[in-house]
Amino acid sequence: MSGSEGGDPRILLRGTSEYDRARRDATWNALLPDRFPEAIVQARGEADVVAAVRFAREQGLQVKARSGGHSWTASSIRDRSVLVDLGALDEIDYTPGAATVAVGPGVHGQQLNRALEDHGFFFPTGHCSTVALGGFLLQGGWGWNSRSVGPACLSIEAVDVVNAAGELIHASREENPDFWWAARGAGPGYFGIVTRFQLRLHRRPAAMRRSLYIYPLELRREVLGWAYEVGPRLAPELEFSLLATTPRPPGAAPGEKNTALIVNAHALMADADAARAALEIIDTCPVAGRALHRETQVETSFDELYSRSDAMEEKGYRWCADNVWTDAGIEDLLPAMDDLLTTVPTAVSHVLWYQWHRQEFPDAATSLQGNLYLAAYSGWTDPAEDERMVRWPRERMASLDATSNGTALADENLVARPARFMSEENERRLEQLRRRHDPDQLFASYLRGQAGHPPTIKRQGAS
Ligand SMILES: Cc1cc2nc3c(=O)[nH]c(=O)nc-3n(C[C@H](O)[C@H](O)[C@H](O)COP(=O)(O)OP(=O)(O)OC[C@H]3O[C@@H](n4cnc5c(N)ncnc54)[C@H](O)[C@@H]3O)c2cc1C
After folding, report:
1. Which residue, among 115, 99, 97, 119, has the nearest Cα to 107 in the 3D structure?
2. Which among 111, 137, 138 is the best mutation to test ligand 1's pocket, defined by most ligand atoms within 8 Å of the CB?
3. Can you tell me which atom of ligand 1 is nearest the CA of 28?
4. N or C terminus: which one in the chain shows less Cβ crowding within 10 Å?
5. Which residues line ligand 1 (CB under 6 A)?
6. How many CB atoms lie within 10 A of CB 153?
């Protein structure tokens, strides 16, 4: 954002080669949607955002912001709209010693944690380095150590927002509280454009250690049964996940598909002895002796953790994702997981089993959770495979519907599989607030689709 009042935005109109490039670059996913904004405004500061919102209103178009473009469904790219690209609003305003920071929506997670490194604080950013704070925070923000410090949106103390009248307002618990409450979880359905977040910081974990086991897929029942049993006993500061994919070290190209089961645990704690003790539970799997590979009690850092996550979800592929929160019992989970784990379609595709630690979500639109977060991600390169690859996560997650509490907006795929993503009460409140603060629906809301879903992401509301 650098100074950040703006005043000289780049405006790209549909039908030009610059527009085509900017539209493609607006999404991290190589699978481009069949949707076309009328104009793309590359904002340099908040004045540009104000001007873009007023321009859209005058033209009878909707508006949608884009911060880092990591929405799997490219929910910012909409027909009959003005796309406001906030990537350049990437200022980090930090006073050494303070327990709060102000950031622009274009700041990437790793960028923020690097800036805080020497100051004893961290922020629970997304697990991959380039996920921007804008969309991440608004949708809930299930980040590093969120099991302990909460979803990142609960650390939003205030936001600066351009509202539907094209005014820049400040919102906090005391001032314009509707805009503050909705910023804590409304995600792609937010009725404004956030130009700046004021965030509460957390003590940086002084002890960071990790362990990893790779099991052959044949041992899935034993490993999953054990993971289900130990899950509720894990320390909140221990991140624990199972990933079904073809293992490869960071930087290595994917080879032939050979799905294995990777148990990953990260202890992010204040005390080294506590971190060591918390990780020991990972060695208790009854088939640990049959693991193909193990790395135990390795000292780690945020930079290493980001690069390990980045290796799993690489840019350049066509991606499709979907997820559920669930409290299902192991008897229901095992057959469903069997189906998921044995059908992972390509070497880069994967299934995530993430053990959540339930907590209260006060004063926030975000409201769904479950004991387990399950997500399926298909990754591929050949457009001829689009239909099959888009179908896999949707169908597999739909098969878990009966035991699901709903979906997280993080890896949502509402365009392919509309599902509950908020408590009924919060969804009702959000829609009331939208009617009050954006009666003309200037801001495009959730990208909900129909059941029948074509190969590429379906255009919505297009003429
Ligand atoms: C590789 C990868 C890793 C991920 N890891 C995690 C993870 O660890 N944890 C997690 O919770 N999620 C994760 N996600 C999901 C990601 O956090 C969400 O898709 C998030 O919305 C991305 O934010 P963005 O700004 O990059 O996305 P964008 O595509 O730019 O925006 C996403 C949505 O938010 C809206 N939006 C963005 N910024 C603003 C703003 N300033 N004002 C108003 N509306 C706005 C957009 O209009 C759009 O609808 C990951 C996604 C990817 C692709």
Report:
1. 115
2. 138
3. 53
4. C
5. 28, 64-72, 75-76, 86, 105, 126-128, 131-132, 134-136, 138-143, 187-188, 190, 193-194, 313, 410-411
6. 27
Q: What is the DSSP string of 147-197?
A: HHH--GGGGEEEEEEE-TTS-EEEEESSSSHHHHHHHTT-GGG-SSEEEEE
Cα(227)–Cα(79) distance, integer angstroms: 44
Tell me, what's the pLDDT at 249? Answer: 79
Ligand 1 atom at minimum distance from 144 CA:
8
The pLDDT > 70 percentage for the chain reads 96
Which residue owns the Cα nearest ligand 1 atom 23? Answer: 135
Among the candidates 187, 204, 221, a domain finishes at: 204
The alpha carbon of 340 and the centre of ligand 1 are apart by a number of angstroms equal to 25
Looking at the fold, whether 239 and 315 belong to one and the same domain comes out as yes
Is 260:246 a contact under the CB 8 Å cutoff? yes
Which tens digit of pLDDT belongs to each residue from 438-449? 999 999 999 987
Q: How far is the CA of 292 from the centre of ligand 1 (A)?
A: 35
The yes-or-no verdict on residue 457 having pLDDT over 70 is no
Task: Supply the CATH number for residue 142's domain.
Answer: 3.30.465.10
221 and 138 assigned to the same domain: no
Strand order in the sheet with 62-66: 10-13, 39-42, 81-85, 62-66
Based on the fold, state whether residues 188 and 212 are members of the same structural domain.
no
Burial class (CB in 10 A: 0-12, 13-18, 19+), 178: middle
Which residues span the domain enclosing 143?
92-204
Q: What is the DSSP letter of 243?
A: E
Could you read off the pLDDT of 306-342 as tens digits, one per residue?
Answer: 999 999 899 999 999 999 999 999 999 999 999 999 9
Please give the Cα distance from 24 to 28 (Å, whole number).
Answer: 8
DSSP 3-state assignment of 118?
A: helix
- CA atoms within 13 A of residue 177's CA, in its CB half-sphere: 5
Portion of the chain with pLDDT greater than 90, in percent: 92
Query: What gap in Å lies between CA 104 and CA 97, rounded to an integer?
Result: 20
